[in-house]
């Protein structure tokens, strides 16, 4: 069967993406700029800008001189990549073999697909209409080879070329249409060979001798004499395993066995692909049509069968079996690649299992108590006691610790919220001599301070401003506390609070 | 240590003697790994140091003294990559207060376990992990079965557990290897608040005798000194209460 390829050419992809995002942009001239060796250069320009003379490849300074009202947008390669990926996946509805073709094209292998859409002409019209409705400027061509379709889409008015018409269709096109390097095209131009037709009349060995083998390879690929393959895009298969049972199961051992089989399938696949996952969702479809769910999360990507089986068995008693389970599916989400671990030699002592034991411990504790309750400390750049340390869950990466001035002594235990205490025999500006905490009276023999802490001015309104003077006190028995005097700007007077315990 | 028989008599297959020797030898083997508390305290301890791989108790009025004592001992454990796990029913632990004791905050893992069953389970699981070097947990009571399970887990993995208890509601931890009571005593004139002064009381020690010391934590060592005022032990234990 004769192979047919369809090539799509998106002439202004960057501009189209931005205009789709914000349709109002199309009215005024704007250009996409990128940085090239320290200068900002134009990468693409929209319709009004082009009419005013702004061309891609020129410097922004020159373009601004030409058109002072030009808007600029910085280029965003990641967004463009995502858009191209999305378009390739979208083209999957027309052919199973769709591939990215260079920076601005898509090629589809439509051998045997055209009749499903009513013929090649209708297929091309439909694709172009759909993409135009999506506000993309696109040109397409269908030919026998991918190279010929590429050339026709960009440089020819003809859209569909049959097998026997191919040489005639390619002849008038410039030599650039063969995807050769720019230097060779310039040299060919100097030699007078400006179109493909002129080039084909020259004997082949002299072309190879003068310009190298690439030129003839490209020509043969366009004519169909040399092979060229495309690597189609394949969506990654979802990580999913399912088991259906001849009779509904309900006993613990049966459910465990089912989970073990599902996990084995997925874990072997993850191991083969050197990946791990952080979320495992088990869905059990019951006989009466409802479903029961079980989810296991881990703090680090895991694929170890024993560890996951243990996590599942700890949660299994929460699974409501109902009248029986007919189908059990296990899905995996948040898949990440795991770096391979060096296996230790047997006589070196420590085995590989021990290195993951801390992660497994954190997973088990997090699964039972909640991952928010398993935290590490992070010292924040703040002196206020309620915000100077932060609990960061182990599942999240934390920023590095801030420097803490060691002369500032802090209590080992904080009492949140601070407890109001009564103070007597206060010398103005100093620490009281007697305080009462709850029912106990304490006589203070030693005090250090005050350490004045004011709230962060960008958080609190001035009316709610409270100033705190902290004192480290020791009473006559030797017990040591951290108390503060709170004064408010709005109200006169002061109040004393107990905030922490010092060793 | 009066019940160790001399070497030449150990080979005699005397039933009475072997019944006495076996627990002593096995205890020496079990508590072979120790850390030093301070020179004077090590002399009194039967293992010449605080044994690792087992569970201890530190009582203090309000938990601050116990936390500080346990932390400064845990820094001396020769396991630089070991994690320190702090399990508590609330989030009142302030790790900045331990910076004078050279405890790096990166090695702490803080777990909040609201009810006592979850707390006991977490301590058990943490003690089983070989990557954990020390587990600190404020507990109120633990019966013999639970203490035994904790002890077995700690021996299996080499982790050390410190149970922190408050002297005010009387704690009832059934069995630990050593029981300490740390109370604050008045500091002499001129001492700073970064150097706490404690009355360290070894209430119970397996294979040893109770003893008392007074010491100050200064320059990463416990310096022993006589108390500045005569101490009344019973009054101290009940008087320094944080009645909040």
Relevant terms:
heterodimer, A: 503 residues, alpha+beta, four-stranded antiparallel beta sheet, 19 strands, 29% helix, B: 244 residues, alpha/beta, Rossmann fold, two-stranded antiparallel sheet, 13 strands
Any idea how many domains of chain B?
1
* Sheet having the most strands of chain A: 6 strands, antiparallel, barrel
The first-to-last residue Cα distance of chain A is: 87 Å
Please report the number of helical segments of chain B: 7
| CATH architecture designation of chain B | 3-Layer(aba) Sandwich
Oligomerization state: heterodimer
The major beta sheet of chain B can be summarized as:
9 strands, mixed
How would you describe the shape of chain A? extended
- Strands of the widest sheet of chain A, in order across it, are 14-15-16-17-18-19
Strand tally of chain A? 19
Helical residues, percent of chain B? 25-40%
What is the mean pLDDT of chain B?
A: 82
Question: Class by helix and strand content of chain B?
Answer: alpha/beta
Q: Give the uncertain stretches of chain A in residue-range form.
A: none
Which chain pair has the greatest contact? A-B, 53 and 55 residues
CATH top-level class of chain B: Alpha Beta
Which term fits the overall shape of chain B?
globular
Counting DSSP H or I runs of 4 or more residues, the number of helices of chain A is 15
Structural class of chain A: alpha+beta
CATH superfamily (homologous) name of chain B: P-loop containing nucleotide triphosphate hydrolases
The total count of strands of chain B amounts to 13
């Amino acid at each position: 069967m004769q192979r047919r390829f369809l090539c799509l050419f998106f002439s202004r992809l960057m501009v189209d993406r931005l205009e789709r995002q914000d349709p109002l942009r199309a009215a005024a001239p704007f250009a996409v700029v990128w940085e090239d060796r320290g200068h900002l250069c134009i990468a693409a320009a929209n319709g009004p800008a082009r009419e005013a003379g702004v061309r891609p490849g020129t410097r922004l300074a020159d373009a601004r001189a030409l058109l002072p009202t030009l808007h600029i947008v910085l280029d965003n390669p990641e967004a463009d990549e995502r858009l191209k990926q999305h378009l390739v996946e979208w083209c999957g509805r027309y052919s199973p073999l769709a591939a990215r073709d260079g920076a601005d094209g898509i090629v589809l292998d439509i051998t045997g697909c055209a009749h499903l859409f009513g013929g090649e002409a209708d297929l091309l019209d439909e694709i172009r209409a759909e993409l135009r409705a999506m506000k993309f400027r696109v040109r397409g061509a269908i030919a026998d080879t991918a190279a010929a379709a590429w050339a026709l889409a960009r440089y020819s008015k003809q859209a569909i070329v049959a097998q026997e018409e191919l040489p005639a269709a390619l002849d008038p096109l410039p030599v650039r249409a063969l995807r050769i390097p720019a230097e060779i095209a310039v040299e060919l131009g100097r030699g007078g060979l400006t179109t493909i037709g002129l080039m084909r009349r020259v004997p082949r060995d002299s072309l190879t001798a003068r310009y190298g083998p690439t030129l003839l390879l490209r020509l043969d690929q366009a004519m169909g004499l040399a092979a060229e393959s495309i690597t189609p895009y394949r969506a990654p298969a979802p990580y999913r395993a399912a088991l259906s049972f001849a009779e509904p199961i309900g006993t613990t051992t049966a459910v465990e066995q089912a989970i073990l089989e599902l996990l084995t399938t997925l874990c072997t696949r993850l191991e083969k692909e050197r990946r791990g996952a952080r979320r495992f969702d088990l869905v059990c479809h019951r006989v009466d049509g409802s479903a029961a769910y079980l989810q296991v999360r881990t703090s680090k990507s895991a694929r170890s069968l024993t560890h996951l089986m243990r996590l599942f068995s700890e949660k299994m008693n929460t699974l409501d079996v109902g009248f029986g389970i007919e189908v059990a599916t296990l899905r995996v989400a948040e898949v990440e690649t795991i770096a391979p671990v060096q296996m230790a030699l047997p006589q070196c002592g420590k085995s590989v299992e021990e290195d993951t034991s801390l992660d497994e411990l954190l997973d088990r504790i997090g699964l039972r108590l909640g991952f928010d309750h398993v935290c590490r400390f992070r010292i924040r750049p703040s002196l206020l006691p309620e915000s100077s340390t932060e609990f960061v869950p182990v599942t999240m990466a934390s920023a590095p610790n801030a420097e803490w001035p060691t002369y500032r002594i802090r209590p080992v235990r904080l009492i949140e919220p601070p407890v109001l205490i009564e103070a007597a025999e206060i010398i103005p500006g100093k620490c009281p001599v007697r305080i009462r905490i709850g029912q106990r009276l304490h006589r203070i023999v030693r005090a250090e301070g005050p350490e004045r802490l004011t709230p962060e001015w960008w958080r609190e309104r001035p009316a709610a401003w409270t100033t705190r003077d902290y004192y480290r006190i020791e009473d006559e028995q030797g017990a040591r506390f951290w108390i503060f005097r709170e004064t408010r700007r709005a109200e006169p007077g002061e109040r004393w609070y107990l905030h922490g315990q010092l060793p | 240590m009066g019940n160790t028989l001399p070497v030449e008599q150990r080979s005699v297959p005397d039933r009475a003697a072997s019944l006495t020797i076996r627990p002593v030898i096995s205890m020496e083997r079990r508590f072979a790994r120790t850390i030093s508390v301070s020179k004077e305290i090590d002399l009194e301890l039967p293992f010449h140091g605080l044994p690792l791989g087992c569970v201890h108790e530190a009582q203090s009025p309000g938990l601050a003294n116990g936390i500080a004592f346990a932390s400064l001992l845990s820094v001396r454990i020769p396991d630089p990559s070991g994690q320190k796990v702090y399990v508590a029913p609330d989030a009142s632990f302030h790790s900045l207060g331990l910076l004078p004791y050279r405890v790096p905050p990166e090695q702490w893992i803080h777990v909040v376990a609201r009810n006592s069953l979850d707390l006991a389970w977490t301590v058990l699981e943490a003690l089983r992990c070989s990557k954990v070097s020390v587990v600190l947990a404020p507990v109120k009571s633990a019966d013999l079965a639970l203490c035994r399970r904790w002890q077995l887990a700690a021996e299996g993995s080499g982790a050390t557990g410190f149970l922190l208890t408050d002297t005010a509601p009387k704690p009832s931890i059934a069995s630990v290897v050593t029981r300490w009571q740390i109370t604050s005593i008045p500091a002499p004139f001129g001492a700073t608040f970064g150097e706490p002064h404690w009355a360290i009381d070894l209430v119970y020690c397996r294979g040893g005798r109770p003893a008392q010391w007074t010491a100050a934590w200064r320059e990463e060592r416990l310096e022993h000194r006589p108390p500045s005022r005569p101490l009344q032990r019973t009054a101290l234990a009940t008087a320094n209460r944080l009645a909040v």
